[in-house]
Every structure is written in C-alpha cells, then in structure tokens.
Write a structure and sequence with these properties.
Layout lengths: L8 H16 L2 H7 L5 E3 L3 E4 L17 E4 L4 E4 L5 E3 H8 L7 H14 L9 H4 L32 E3 L16 H4 L4 H6 L3 E3 L7 E7 L5 E8 L12 E2 L4 E3 L2 E4 L16 E7 L2 H9 L5 E3 L7 H9 L1 E10 L4 H14 L4 E5 L11 H7 L3
Parallel strand pairs: 6-12, 13-14, 13-15, 15-16
Antiparallel strand pairs: 1-2, 2-3, 3-4, 4-5, 7-8, 8-9, 9-10, 11-12
Helix pairs in contact: 3-4
The chain binds zinc ion (ZN).
Amino acid sequence: MVLFIFHWSTIVASYLNFKDLRQRLSFRDILTDYQIELTEKAGGQGMGYCPLPQHKGSEARRSPSFSAHLERGIFQCFSCGISGNLIEFAALMDGLDPADGADFRKTALKLAQRFGIQTSKPDKESAAKPAAPPPVTAKEPSPTGEEDEPGTDTKSALPVVVNAALEFELKDLDPEHPYLPSRGFTPETIAHFGLGACQRGLMKDRVAIPLLDASGILIGYAGRVVDDNTINAQNPRYKFPGMRETKGIRYEFHKSEFLYHGHAIAKPVSDLVVVEGFTALWWLWQHGYQDVVGLMGSACSDTQARLILERSKPKGRIWYFADGDPAGVKCAKDTLAMLATSRLVRLVIADGRQPTDFTEGELKKLMPF
Ligand SMILES: [Zn+2]
C-alpha cells in the first residue's frame, strides 16, 4: 500500500496548466476560426473592429477599437473596455461568461480539441465539472515511440490532460538506502533531488525520482531499480508515470513535454549542460554543474528543445554531455542539430564511457566553466 497524501498544489497547478494551454494556442488561428481579420502591425499587434457580441454601441464599431497582441494571446477593446486572454476571447465570442469557471473550462476544452491539443470529447461525467478547472495541455505524439507515452493511438472518450500535478506524494522514501551511495552519490545530492528508495506499491524496490514541472510542482515519479540483477522485460530499469483517470479526466505523463531539473534553472544561464539520463545529471550536479537538465530519453522533442533554449542565454553555450554508447551519441547529435541554429553548442563525447565514469578533474577539463 502506498500512502496517498492529498496536496493543495493541485489547485494551483490547474491554473498554471491553463497558462500552458494559452501559450500553445495560436491567437491567429482562433481569429481565423471566427472569420475575424485584423490589420497586423509591427510587433504582433492586430487592430480592427470589435467583433465581440457583448460590444456596446454601434457608433463605436465604426472605429477600429479592438486590439489584439497575437504573440502574447491577449486582447482589449478601447471602446467597450473588455479585455482578456485568447481563451476568454473565444468564450465571449461563443456568448459565454469567461469569469464562470464552467464556461471557461468548456471553452478551453473546445479550443484544445479544435486545434488538436486534445483530441477527445468531454463526456457526461466531466461535464459535471470538478471544483477547479482541470489543467489542459498539449498532447503530442512521443518522439521516441516508447510505450510509457500513450501517444495518439489510444481512443478514450475522456478529455486528456498531460503532465498535471499529482494529487499525492510518496511518503516513507528511504534516502539512506545503500543503492545511491554505492553509485557515489552524496547525501546532499540525494536531498537536492528528493530521492529515496520506496518499499511499497508500484515503486517497490526502486529509487523514487520526483518529477517537478517548470513551476516546481510535483507531476509524478520515475522509479529506478535498486538491484540491476532484477532488470528484465517485465521489470525495466526505469519506470515512468502511467495513465490515470479521475473524475472523468484522463491524466497522462509525456516525457516529450518535460525537461528534468528544468525547474531549477530559474533564469537563462551562460552555460547550460544537457544530458540524457538521471544518473548523469545527478553526477554532474554533484560535481559543480548546477545548470544541468535531462531529456530522460533517447530523443529530444520540439518542446524539450524550446525548454532548453528558454534556459540558455542567447549568447550562451549549450553543452551536451553524451552517454558513451552509439544511441547516446546519436541522441546528442540530433539534439544539438535542433539547437545549433539558435545557440553555440558543444558536444562532449568520450568513447564508451558514461558521464558518471568521469572524475571532477576530468569533467573540469572537458567543460571548463
Ligand atoms: Zn468592443
């Protein structure tokens, strides 16, 4: 039995995830959908007649009082005074009240579905709505095609929410389990990453690895086997969060939408290190490379590339410390190819050696900063 502790961050996370949906929606596409044409000016500003059905006064419609910031996804009408974001805009266009949670949620789900951000319809149960609007984020097929990401082949009648906050925390994790010290990790590193061996439930005999989103909110756990001798097809080295259904909503975890340790990079840095896996990341962090992020898989998605760029100064450098095997080197090269048009990139490879094989002195020679 795993002890479940309900966590209030769920409520906060709901709004953070709506923010995420807002960022992924295109205001241009929404306007086109409502057959609204604006005159586009420099800086992504669109101007035109106010299209809102709530707009008061036919006189005012004769001047282009409506202004939309197409990149930032916000609008305002200087005549009727209504303003808001693109989801609120769509709600108003549909004659709904964006201040009403149910109306807002209905619009968000509709937009997500309309633009392929989530593909399925809300069912009756979810229409009965939970207290807080659910987080809705983009749903993209996994770049890796790995089975832990359900992808688009699953046909569920439920709305799909990706990488939402977890409603519980694992308790009684053992940070003193011998596995991590045996790999050379110090108590400080184990504490920084919140690691601990789990004795029960799905994560039994694994090191539970908290996965925190960009806001530092727990969205799930990965689990690393503590005894490599037990690894087989049924018991993979790593487990990732599975799918869960609650209150008519289906929650999925997509690695491709997530950057491990990304929350720790609060603002863009000059030298950002990218690695593939957890242990490489912990090792580099322990040896003085605090600005390090992990893909957690053998491919970098467009979203991950964006998340990496957001954490790197425009004139900064991005270092990829590759796993020593051929698959690791290929992942590194593919990832850097995606980033090289925007940043100075550096590939660090050492034949057949993993990042965890390097001493601090060797690391400092390879990545001197
Ligand atoms: Zn107006």
